[in-house]
Amino acid sequence: MIRLVVAAVLTLATLSAALPAVDDARAGRTDAELEGAIDRIERAGQHLAASEDAVPRRARAAGRRVAIRLPEASLTAARPAFVAVGGRPDGPGNRSVVAYASGGSPTRLRGLSLPVPLATPDGPVVFTASGRHAVDVALVDDAGRPTLVVTRG
């Protein structure tokens, strides 16, 4: 009987010591997945600016669709609160940043290294639901200067 109690106490102690590491790993995996999506958005914008010509109408502009996956909360991934392309969800758009928060962590801002300005016509493109999403990136001529326009895909 004493062996059973000691085994249960040791199991609980080991589990309580390991849970913070599991939470950190979940948040780290989610951050890595979101950073990968941000890198894809950045590469799409850089490629468009370097190899395509800007046109006045978005319907005829060269573009790329970039997939973003927001994971569900699980033992291996933390659920992001939001991902916002073009600025913070409650702020103005038209900024070359992606804001995101995951696993109860504070909002992180990741700047996009783009050779041309970024525009989000309807404010930041915000995703809050888990699952697959997409943004469309198009190279548009805005009053004589090339601009990357990002919209919900």
Q: How are helices and strands ordered from N to C? A: HEEEEEEEE
Q: Count all strands and give the number.
A: 8
Q: Name the structural class.
A: alpha+beta
* Arithmetic mean of pLDDT: 87
Specify the number of helices. 1
- What's the N-to-C terminus distance? 61 Å
Roughly what fraction of the amino acids lie in strands? 25-35%
Radius of gyration, CA atoms, in whole angstroms: 21 Å
Query: In what order do the strands lie side by side in the largest sheet?
Result: 1-7-8-5
- The global form is elongated
Question: What oligomeric state is this?
Answer: single chain
Report on the architecture of this protein.
The chain has 153 residues and is of the alpha+beta class. Helices cover 33% and strands 32% of the residues. It has one helix and eight strands, in the order αββββββββ. It has one helix at residues 2-51; strands at 63-70, 80-85, 97-102, 108-111, 118-119, 125-127, 131-142, 145-152. The strands form two sheets. Strands 1-7-8-5 form a four-stranded mixed beta sheet, with helices on one face. Strand 7 (131-142) and strand 8 (145-152) form a beta hairpin. The model has no long low-confidence stretch (mean pLDDT 87).
